[in-house]
Amino acid sequence: MKSPVVPAPPKHLTPASKSIWRVIFTDYQIDPAAEMLLVATLEARDRREEARVALAKDGAVQTDRFGQKKPHPSIAIERDSATTMMRGW
User: What are the CA-CA distances from residue 75 to residues 10, 29, 44, 46, 78 (Å)?
Assistant: First the structure.
């Protein structure tokens, strides 16, 4: 069942996540508990996308000050955010 009024999405979400928010609220009736879950899911989506941008720019492997190859810290952020996002959906 559709929500009678689509509430404004949280200001801190990206435009893409705000769009998803509007689609979900237009198509479904969301109670306050589900709304909290939706916010957390969309925050995780935004975090994952931010990490993906960093990985695309910097690469998945970095060299530390000792010349050792190390995974980029954004790999863990992307992985953890994707897990959180999928659990939320």
Answer: 26, 35, 14, 15, 5
